[in-house]
Write a structure and sequence with these properties.
Layout lengths: L19 H9 L9 E8 L2 E8 L2 H7 L4 E7 L8 H21 L8 E5 L10 H7 L5 H6 L11 E4 L4 H4 L3 H12 L3 E10 L8 E5 L18 H4 L3 E11 H20 L3 H4 L7 H11 L8 E2 L4 H20 L14
Parallel strand pairs: 4-5, 4-6, 6-8
Antiparallel strand pairs: 1-2, 2-3, 3-7, 7-8, 8-9
């Protein structure tokens, strides 16, 4: 028997835990050591933290509430300061890491790529995907119409922002499936906005995963996703948390209050009672149940979201352009794409 055998199944808490790194932190919060079936590596590089996380078997998948696969997470808290030099460094690191990621999962330099920007361009926190598509270097039309004039160092890349069900009346997965049948890409890169359980990760974190993507999963929607099983080609997901749940903010506030009281007199039991003895998972669930009479949880995004979303979308688009096309310098990427 291992220490994690009787832990709470994180499948109960998948809403609002889009980041594999956060799922790992929740499982490890009990202080029981490494998670069976999960390998991780952390790299620090002058304000940029890169975490490579591999879920290698079903035990790790069950404990984490995430699919077996490779996950890479960039954490850059200082992105909020809108430092263009830092943005360029993040785009450069993203390009280099993503190129390595493609090689690791067997995607060659000649593979045809379809970039799918998921989300609603009319709702700023959900507009990440469409903005990335807008700034993507697409070349498929050149390969189709004038292949002999395409310079070396460019690959066949196409891009689409399929919209959302509420606007088009068509599931995003159905739109993409139709395009795949006609365009026949070798790999799909899907970009989507995510939800985080930590305010400090909103608009400062980028996750790459080879497990596909489920449109709307960050806000609790359960619909057809974009996966290799459905589309017949590998699907790489790139996500950025742009919102956080109100229940998460309440839960974090409880932690801050407990720490403050503890610093003052060392005893928090007389104020927080049973809540003081609860595990974080159980306390978060209790907060969500308390908000239940509202009929829904609330999603919160920073008031500076308009500029944040443009900046992070430019970083992602610039990194992708450099990673996918050898003709673009991967050692000095500019995040300014306009």
């Amino acid at each position: 028997m291992n220490d994690y055998e009787h832990d709470i199944d994180l499948q109960r808490f998948t809403v609002g835990i889009d980041l594999a790194l956060e799922a790992k932190e929740m499982v490890e919060s009990g202080g029981k050591g490494p998670i069976p079936g999960v390998l991780s590596e952390v790299i620090e590089d002058d304000g940029i933290t890169i975490t490579r996380l591999d879920i290698v078997d079903e035990q790790g998948s069950q404990l984490m509430g995430k699919m077996i696969g490779h996950y890479v997470t960039f954490e850059v808290p200082e992105l909020r300061k809108q430092d263009t030099g830092l943005q360029d460094r993040v785009a450069t690191k993203l390009a280099q890491e993503f190129e390595t990621f493609l090689e690791r999962i067997g995607i060659g330099k000649t593979a045809n790529v379809l970039i799918v920007g998921l989300g609603n361009w009319n709702v700023t926190p959900d507009a990440l995907g469409p903005i990335v598509v807008e700034n993507t270097l697409v070349t498929r039309h050149f390969f189709e119409l004038m292949p002999d004039q395409v310079a070396p160092g460019y690959r066949n890349v196409s891009a689409i922002a399929p919209g959302v069900l509420g606007i088009t009346g068509i599931e995003s997965s159905d739109v993409v499936q139709g395009i795949v049948e006609r365009a026949k890409p070798d790999v799909i890169i899907a970009i989507d906005a995510l939800a985080s359980k930590a305010l400090e990760r909103v608009n400062t974190t980028i996750q790459i995963a080879d497990t596909g993507i489920h449109p709307g999963s960050g806000i609790g929607n359960k619909r057809k996703g974009l996966t290799k099983e459905l589309l017949g080609v590998p699907v790489i997901a790139i996500g950025v948390p742009t919102v956080v749940y109100a229940s998460t903010i309440v839960n974090n506030t409880i932690d801050l209050m407990r720490n403050h009281v503890k610093d003052q007199n060392g005893n928090t039991d007389h104020i927080f009672g049973l809540i003081n003895q609860m595990e974080e998972n159980d306390r978060l669930q209790l907060v969500r149940e308390a908000l239940g009479p509202l009929g829904h949880d609330l999603l919160v995004t920073p008031k500076e979201i308009d500029q944040f979303i443009e900046d992070i979308a430019n970083i992602v688009a610039s990194g992708l352009n450099a990673a996918l096309h050898d003709a673009v310098d991967k050692t000095n990427v500019s995040a300014y794409t306009h």
